[in-house]
Amino acid sequence: MISRTTIDRVFETARIEEVVGDYVVLKKRGGNLLGLCPFHNEKTPSFTVTPTKGIYKCFGCGAAGNAVGFLMAHDQLTYPEAIKQLALRYQIEIEEDQRTQNDPAYQAEKSQRDRLWDLMAFAQQYYTRLLWDHPSGMAIGLSYFHERGLSDTTIHRFGLGYSLEQSAALVEMATQSGFTTEELELAGLALTSETRGPYDRFRGRVLFPIYHVNGKTIGFGGRTLKTDRKEAKYINSPETPLYRKSESLFGLHQARKAMTAAGFVYLVEGYMDVISLSQAGVENVVASSGTALTREQAALIHRFATEVTLIYDGDQAGIKAALRGIDILLENDLRVRVIALPEHEDPDTLARRLQGEALKEFLNDNAQDFMAFQQNLLLKEAGRDPLRISSALQVVAASIACVGDPILRAMYIRHLAEDAGIPDASVQEAVVQQFKLKAKRSPNTTTSTVPTPSPEGLAQTLAGTKDETHTVPDLQPLSDIPQETEILRLLLLVGHQPMSQTSADESVSIVEYMGETLLSLTWDSPSCRVLLELCLARWQMEGCLPGNHELMNHADQGIATMATRWYTENPQISPNWDQMHDISVPPPHDNLNKEIQTTFDRLLLKKILRHSRLKQVELQTLQQSPEGYDHPAISQILRDIQELKEAERRITACTGIVITH
């Protein structure tokens, strides 16, 4: 754990304009700096950096924060990773918290990981040096890359390398540099046999480094240049403490900025597919490294983009890989398109055939929605066979069931029904069945005291008609996060002030008056919940509330972003307003006590209404169960509903809010 002293030094030293300036072209505008926002596409600059306050703010998309928060958001780093990156930039020594320094297990694990990071960096430098400086590396490895059409700039950009044919070349060099054979095996760079002893895993191959998102090497892919069929064409690093194949994407480190800027990514299979496309001008491209796409990889993509275009080889294996990946991407709320290449073409050959704008135009023109791709492919194969047509439509229905957006899902159902020439109800039923099957197969399915809407209810909603005897209300109310954020903003401003006089005639602060009730609520925003707990703990221990500077530098990025917005969005009344309009407006702070009470009541009422709604659904579901009205839990649910109704009545009576059910 990084010490508080180091964190404070990083925040004191880091200059927001320098950190952001590495990613955004900034121009002077008064006391601020202005540029195009890196978090959304815009033509008119609205991204403002304020050096005197150490913050950035985009008035287009609302992104805001400090130097650490910027790196976390832009480079998708964790808080410790961002702190360490800034410490390295400003040459600040990282001190560990004394509590972790005295923990032998923590220190052993940290020491091991640090050694492995250093070893992987050493290995990459060694392989790269062999490619450029060793006679075999230049004659075999470098010639191969040049024959594949790669420029020296591209070879350097991806850190490509070469390994010698001899058995233990890396082992010998690494042990001479202080690394152990155990560390080489743990990093996946070496193997050991009883007869040969330790030997290199990668021998006589060109090498493709696999990077962590932070730019550090975590593994390698090695391709042999021999024609011997007994020799595996590709071998990859095994699972190690640094490298998890299912959680890594080749080319992500190089592509992340282009992905963020474009909002979408091309997903391919092989190393050369990524490198060739990138060299040809399509930089927002990554690969699953020859493995079947995983949910972890899809989630990693979603950190940088909202849309994926699959480009797989035009052969049967490539088509099957594309079909497998569609559902996984849809389940992670990614929009999916597919490019079907000609049978004997792959992304690498395509990128060598087309360049620049011609390549981008081809990709854009040939990208089709996932459903159109599935229909064109599967229905063409099915011909007129009713059973094969049915099976093909079930595949499409299974993909539609993965779409999270209910409106988009309804549109897909309607389009599929129209294209296939079958009733909407039949497609809806197929989607519902696939929804049920996925729920049964899902390893994350858990039981809950509050039942979720049935697939039948989903189908009825999509159809636009509802069977009154089986309708289950929608359980997706609007988020309470805006109200949660506002109550905390006001609490930090006036929470220290007295709320009222109790029966014992003792002054009670606003934070004490509201704290216990707020703590008992279910919060939509985890960051708001953490901030509330921080406020209450600080008040109880020190009799004060956290300051804005502390919150802007908080490790929770959600808290830091909220605090930055509050700091930059502080409206002031013009001093000449009274004279210009002859209207007296009291300062905003004069109304804060009344405003916080109103906000508190509205938030509380909204939580009560949601909870009451859930209880009603739970009651309805139990009444429709085999036990019906005799279910033992019904009486308690009825009491809960009555208590919630009474609480609702009290709040509406005090506030004058009218609720229409």
Protein topology:
Elements: H1 4-13, H2 16-21, E1 27-29, E2 32-35, E3 47-50, E4 55-58, E5 64-65, H3 67-74, H4 79-89, H5 98-101, H6 104-133, H7 135-147, H8 152-157, E6 161-162, H9 169-176, H10 181-186, E7 190-193, E8 197-200, E9 205-211, E10 217-224, E11 234-236, H11 252-262, E12 264-268, H12 271-279, E13 285-287, H13 295-302, E14 307-312, H14 316-331, E15 335-340, H15 347-353, H16 356-366, E16 367-369, H17 370-382, H18 386-400, H19 406-420, H20 424-441, H21 455-463, H22 481-494, E17 498-501, E18 507-509, H23 510-519, H24 526-542, H25 548-552, H26 557-568, H27 577-581, H28 592-623, H29 634-655
Parallel strand pairs: 12-13, 12-14, 14-15
Antiparallel strand pairs: 1-2, 2-3, 3-4, 4-5, 6-9, 7-8, 9-10, 10-11, 15-16, 17-18
Describe, in plain words, how this protein is organized in 3D.
This protein is α+β, with helices and mostly antiparallel strands and 661 residues long. Mean pLDDT is 81; it is low at 443-477 and 501-505. Among the domains are: 4-98, DNA Primase, Chain A (Alpha-Beta Complex), CATH 3.90.580.10; 105-243, DNA primase DNAg catalytic core, N-terminal domain (Alpha-Beta Complex), CATH 3.90.980.10; 383-463, no CATH class; 481-569, no CATH class; 600-655. The chain has a 5-stranded antiparallel β-sheet. The longest helix is centred in the C-terminal third of the chain and has 32 residues, at 592-623. The chain is 53% helix and 11% strand.
